[in-house]
Amino acid sequence: MRFVLDPGVTPALRDGLAGLWADVVNAGGAVGFLPPVKPADVESALRQHLVGMAEGTTRLLVGLPERGGTGRPVATAFLKLNTHPLMGHWVWLTTVMVAPRLQGAGAGRELLAAAASAAQRVAPGATGIRLTCRGGMGLEGFYAACGYREVGRVPDAIHVGDGEYRDDITMWLPLGPRPGGRPPKETAGAVASGR
């Protein structure tokens, strides 16, 4: 897979992103919708990302097939820059998707590594990446294996139908030293106690 940051948004790319999103949801992926969906069903959510891109607050990372590096996207993630003056030192990672046929073969890890690299380019000095994921699917374990740690959980925040609810889990990937060069308190305590 070849990753491209901020590709030109063409009708073909837009259709490819909507198609990927629908494919991932229909395969059981937790990216904002419940199956079954068609590409048209995700258009409104995709449009919100594209508006953010036009405003300069959202950046798109696309994974393209290795052969030729063109064609329909097979992976994607959006990096959202914080506009709040007290939170500009970290970025959001949203709508993280890998084509179902590539899942389980390391493509997700590649995407997350590329997203961390992209975050450092688009937000120099960023100290971390924050994302949320749906509980009950094992996603937090996947993200933990990629260096993220769980920093929050809201029980039953996501209603997935028929009286079934899932936790909304917040994950954090540190990218560098905290502002002022101080390590996180947990790290400082662990180092001092020899843990």
From TrEMBL:
GO MF, one example: acyltransferase activity, transferring groups other than amino-acyl groups
Entry keyword Transferase: yes
Keywords: Transferase
Residue ranges of every copy of the N-acetyltransferase domain listed in the record: 32-176
Gene3D superfamilies tied to this protein: 3.40.630.30
Name of one Pfam family that matches: Acetyltransf_1
Tagged with keyword Transport: no
Region (Disordered): 175-195
Protein name: GNAT family N-acetyltransferase
Species assigned in the record: Streptomyces hainanensis
